[in-house]
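Sorry to interrupt, but I need a hand with the structure work. Could you write out one complete protein record for me, on any chain you like? Could you add the entry underneath, on a fresh line?
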Amino acid sequence: MSLFDKTSSALQTSLAMRQLRHNLTSANVANAETPGYHAKKMDFEEALSRSLDLEGMRNMSTTHGDHMIVGGKTAKVSPDIYENPEGAINNDGNTVDLEKEMSALSENAIMYKAALQLINKKMAALKYAASEGR
């Protein structure tokens, strides 16, 4: 039995990918005035789904009554990072939409904090179970 379940692993992976998204969006914002810079984008949700292997977990089954499905690990998957095809090209060849990037940065920060709070609650529950739950 693993101390950390699939939810904990998913939250950990989510935090890592949200950090990557923050870095990517921050780079876009920093280069908003750079001539010829093309904004980058990543597929966060698709990469997280691949990491969790949701389809594979749904199809898992046991062959004996004493067997159990072991979860808790997420695959090491990195998201696809590419030039944002939705970006409009400015006169200087730059494709950064500063308003969209700032909005994405704010949304990502909120989601990062939410995942962090969920991890803290799971750790508090484990601490309670280990110390006072007996």
